[in-house]
Amino acid sequence: MLIEHDVVQAPLRYFLAAAVALLCVMTLGLGSAQAGELSGTFTDAATGHPIEGASVRVMGTHETAKTDAHGRYAFELPDGVYELAIRAEVGDAVYESRMVRQYVPQILEARPYVYTDWFLNQGIDPQKHAPGMPSFSGEGPEGGPETVDLRDLFGSGEPNPLYYTIPSDQPATIRVGRRRESTGSGGCSDSVNPIVAIESMSLDEYVKGVLPPEIGVFQNIPGASEVYKAFAIAAKSYALYFVLRYGPGNRRSLGRSVPPNNYTWFHIDDTACNQRYTSQRLTITTNAANAVANKIMAKRSDPNSLDKYEYAASCGKHGTRPEHQTALVSDRPPVSSCVGSWCGHNSCAGHETNTAVSGSNRCLVRGICQWGAASWGEAGKSYTWLLSHYQPNLALRNIGQTGPATVALSGYAYTDAGDIAGSGVAGVTISLSDGQTTSTDAQGSYLFDAVREDLGSVEITTTKSGYDTATRTKDLEPGVTNWGSIQISVSTNTPPDPDPDPDPADVGTPDTGSPVDAGADAAQPGDADSQADTSPPDTQTNDVGTSTEQDLQDPHKAEFGPLVQPSSGSYDSGGCGGCAATSGANPSLPGGLLAAWMSISWIFFRRRRS
How far is CA 583 from each of CA 80, 453, 490, rounded to the nearest angstrom? Predict the structure, then answer.
């Protein structure tokens, strides 16, 4: 009967709709990644004062946050490795920086800083062991040993040579031990300040993370770029010594596994016990490191030998005594650089006493004086002059391959523009117009380590069975990781796969290399900013973000570049096709859910027939 049929059909439609929705939710849950907190505290480096109201953005996504009164920010993100762009207005200046290799689950407490003298000028006292300020400046005894034997710096362990033969090419990586307390003020022994993570990266990437915590506060001093170039070379030469010293037969071993890569040995630690390293990047320091990427310092008398020299923090104006000579070199620049009211070149910090000068402030320095170099830089001296002044027994030489500059290109192949980090699709083939090809990992992210910067832009193309091909163009920005996320949609025209079992090559296995060597940045979210691709470079010397101020204020205005075909199934379109597109899961149902669906269908089919 018609009336009876209508009465039965209405509940049937509602129940079937509910069953479809339930299956979609279950399918979505199977495809989603586990979420965790990514948080940190943003403060002024010199004073420790919290920065309120700064914008923090997860690169390549719509995820943004504002720091609270304590400088704290927090995100809930799927497991992976991320990069953050931070923008803060302090006084009359705008400061921008990036935080790279931010892990979820979180391993280290994130402590990004703004390097400025604004708070010092407000009368706030500097904090002890301030990051970005020369280590322990003005806090050590004025006196010191008359001579320094470099062998004393390494203890009595063997092998312990002072010199190593410089390799013809750069080592592939350096392993950095990340200690719980990053300044080293609490010591460097595993008992009081343990290694909590070991990261592996190129020497050049490592240097970019050394300059901000060592001397980042100098960025606004005239001539700062030349100072940073000099210290980039010094930091790289120093790091190379540790890479060569701690070879296969002489490891700095922990005897246990540590996250995020389960390495058990490292070359160098991230505190002032060696030299500071953090995950923060500034444009001015990154550009300086890139400008001298192939240069190190070698023995002047033997350009094939690396000479481990003392890497000094600060000094007085009464001279420097380079290693291997007794003659004093005057170190009295015509200007004295200051950060706020703190002028470090006027005081000693535990260095050698100049016996030819009476009274206080009569110290010498071995190696490169940080405050002195800043003062000479402000006086207009070049980085080559600075190095020859402080290290007359060393000479510059090139190491490694030369060729066109390259940039890293990373991003997600994702399905849901509202949840890029959570809707990545594994096993997507990513092809570039320069001929390079790779695949997305389990989180749906990809990484190209070296894309030629002089190309200007590249075309990114995605292919995967069951998804429409998508293409976008990405303009390349020098000096930073470029983000090229691309949205893909489930195909409505692809015939069913005769083989229901997924192809192992198609599901996206994580890179078999170390997660940081080849995959740490690959797990980063992608760039959702077409504005960042086309906008002119920011004139701020400390800007490293590719996002514009407008992007940070209104991230939902971001665009994703041209697609070959628009998405055929949006989150609001309904049906399991839209659900699968949102979650990034395989559109085919797992066996258990398919059986449940068939059971529901059979029950209502029998009900209707009866």
Answer: 16, 34, 11
In contact, 472 and 486? CB cutoff 8 Å? yes
Distance of CA 85 to the CA centre of its chain: 10
Alpha-carbon distance values, 311 to 163, 296, 402, 437 (Å): 16, 14, 27, 42
557-595 pLDDT, tens per residue? Answer: 333 333 333 333 333 333 333 343 333 344 444 444 444
**Residue 498: strand, helix, or coil:** coil
Give the three-state DSSP class for 341.
Answer: coil
Summarised one tens digit per residue, pLDDT across range 423-451 is: 999 999 999 999 999 999 998 999 998 99
Cα–Cα distance list, 123 to 12, 71, 73, 168 (Å): 73, 20, 26, 51
Long-range contacts of 535-541 (CB under 8 A, 24+ apart): 537/477, 538/96, 538/283, 540/93, 540/94, 540/95, 540/96, 540/283, 541/219, 541/220, 541/224, 541/283, 541/284
Q: Which of 271, 299, 308, 268 is nearest to 152 (CA)?
A: 308
Of 386, 565, 417, residue with least CA distance to 485? 417
Say which DSSP state 555 is in.
G
Q: What is the CA radius of gyration of the chain?
A: 28
Residues 347/126, Cβ–Cβ less than 8 Å: no
pTM: 0.73
Going by pLDDT thresholds of 50, 70 and 90, the confidence category of residue 55 is very high
Rounded to whole angstroms, the Cα distance separating 605 from 545 reads 58
Pairing state between β 195-201 and 174-179: antiparallel
CA distances (Å), origin 601, targets 7, 26, 604, 605: 18, 17, 5, 6
What is each CA distance from 48 to 3, 117, 143, 277, 533, in whole angstroms? 76, 12, 29, 18, 34
**Exposed, middle or buried by CB within 10 Å (0-12, 13-18, 19+), for 517?**
middle
